[in-house]
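Hi everyone, sorry if this is the wrong subforum. Our group has a chain we'd like a structural model of before ordering constructs, and none of us has done structure prediction before. Sequence below.
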Amino acid sequence: MINIDRALRSSIRTGKVVLGSNLTVETGTSGKAKLVINAIDCPEEVAKMLKEADVPVYNYSGRGKDLGSACGKPFPVAALAVIDPGDSEIMALLREIRGNEDE
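Answer:
Right subforum, don't worry. Here is the predicted structure as C-alpha cells:
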C-alpha cells in the first residue's frame, strides 16, 4: 500500500498533473490521462464523464479540500489527472483500481 498523499506530491513535483474538474475531463476524454483521481465530493456529472472516458479512476477517500491539501495546494481539488507520474509511485494505484473491479 502506497502513501497516496506523498505519491501525489511527488507526481506533481516531478511529473505532469492537471488539477480541476474541467481540465481533468478534457485530459481524460482526449486520452492523455494515465490515471484520474477524484474526491468523494466530485460533482456527479464530472464523475460520469470520467467513467465514460475509459480512463482508470481512483476514488480518493477525502473531500476536495483534503485532496487539495494532499496535493500541497491551498484550495479544494475535486479531480486531477496524471499525465506523467514522474518519479512517484502513483501508478501503483492502478493495482488497487483493478482489484476493486474484480469484486
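For your construct planning: The domain at 4-97 is CATH 3.30.1330.30 (60s Ribosomal Protein L30; Chain: A;). The longest helix spans residues 4-14.
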